[in-house]
Amino acid sequence: MSLLYRASRFAASRQLVARPARTFTSSSVRALKETDRHNPEAAEHNEKHKQDGLQKQKEGKGHWKPELASDSEEAVAADKSGDHGSIEEMQKKTAEHAEKKHK
Prior knowledge:
The protein is mainly alpha-helical. It is built from four helices and no strands. It has helices spanning 2-15, 42-58, 71-81, 87-101. Residues 28-103 are annotated as: Disordered.
C-alpha cells in the first residue's frame, strides 16, 4: 500500500512542475558554401550540380566538383593539387575566376 501511495504522490508532484514555453525557434541554413548563405538561387544551383555529378558517376566519368564543396574544402583541394605555378600566374587566375564568378 505504501508503494502505491508513494507512486501517486510522485506523479502528483510531477504534474505541478511548471515548464517554460518554447518561445524562439529558427531554421537551419541550407548552404554548402559559406558565401552562398544570402544567395536565393543556391539551392537550385547546387541541385543542378548534384544531379550532373550523379549522372556522370553512373556513366563512370565521375569527378570532384568544386561547386558542391565548401569554401574550406575547395581551398584544401587547391593546396593539395600542387600545380600552382608562379605568383603572377596565380594572381591572374584568381582575377579571372573572380570576374567570371561575380558577373
